[in-house]
Amino acid sequence: MKHYDYIFAGAGLASLMTAYKMAMSGKFAGHSILLIDPDAKKDNDRTWCFWQKGMGNWDGIVHREWGTALFANEQWRADLNFGGYSYKMVRGIDFYDLVLKELQQHPNIEFVDQKVIDFKDPGIQVSVATGTENYTCDFLFNSIYDPELPASQNKYPVLRQHFIGWHVKTEKPVFDPECPTFMDFSIPQTGNTRFMYVLPFSEKEAIVEYTLFSKDLLPAEEYERAIEDYLNNLGASGYSVIAEEKGSIPMTSYPFWKNNSKKILNIGSAGGWTKASTGYTFRNADKLSGRLVEFMLLQEPDMRQFHKTSRFWLYDLLLLDILAKKNHEGAGIFSSMFKKAKAAPVFKFLDEETSFAEDLKVIWQCPKGLFLKALLGRIFKV
What we know:
Blueprint: E1 2-9, H1 13-25, E2 33-36, E3 47-53, E4 62-66, E5 70-72, E6 77-79, E7 85-91, H2 92-103, E8 109-112, E9 116-120, E10 126-130, E11 134-142, H3 148-151, E12 158-170, E13 181-184, E14 193-202, E15 205-214, H4 220-234, E16 239-252, E17 264-266, H5 282-296, H6 311-325, H7 330-337, H8 343-350, H9 356-363, H10 368-380
Parallel strand pairs: 1-2, 1-11, 2-8, 5-13, 11-17
Antiparallel strand pairs: 3-7, 4-7, 5-6, 9-10, 10-11, 12-15, 12-16, 13-14, 14-15
Helix pairs in contact: 1-2, 1-5, 6-10
């Protein structure tokens, strides 16, 4: 049974970011590191987008970048004022190529194409079992999301950001390559929070996604029909679909960190790193993976002490409480946040970088009755 200092169960975004930063720091060269995942990460299987002010850690692989975006609902449409922020897009394949190329330069880091089926922390060493081998390690970072954990309780609502996206090429110019569509709520809501999301590359090429924030997935044909209708309304009567991506991202304030042990840390969506109110993950993973690398350099790190709860966790919880009971309110809530078309304060708030006074300015724009009722419901369990 081979022993490692650190093992990553799953090699998703959070694991790869953390391993990459460990390698780049130069402070873990004397430690053995193993990443276990059945997927070799050779496909362009996803797209990550995030907003950021100024330069960032991943600018070298940013595929596209925009300085404004469209927000729309049934009543109004506006190009958002980003106030110095940029909306950046990273393709999965570019991220994988960068990270794996760097990891291959470090002989102390290994990658095996296996599936983790079990792990335990009996107190001395962590044991990790795959379908073919067993390993031990001093510390395990688990990024394998277990949907049964949040589903097994009813204290914290569990929604999903679920979508199907088509990468299309149209015969006619129908897109504005300088202005993506951030959220378009002008489409039929049908009792849910539903919007279109468009990332344009040229006047004739874009990724068009039909996205919902709700509890249940739809039949595939319903997403596809919505995309077809949207493209037809844009005037794209002729188009070809050159690629498709789909996803279902957990949106919950369930305290995943309570499942950490002294030697096991849950990371990524499995550790609550996904922003519960939006489903965005990339910026959170970037911040938390950097903090995790610093945390591991402590003389005797206890993984139960890594997580820090903030007031933003409560804000997210209240929004999810509302959407769990009144899912149709989502369009109105997000519209109220962006009604002045000033995106910068909202982006800063969603990145959890605002002061309490700045929080109140954003929150005050939202429907106060809904959030007050949700807060009272949490306090008095009504």
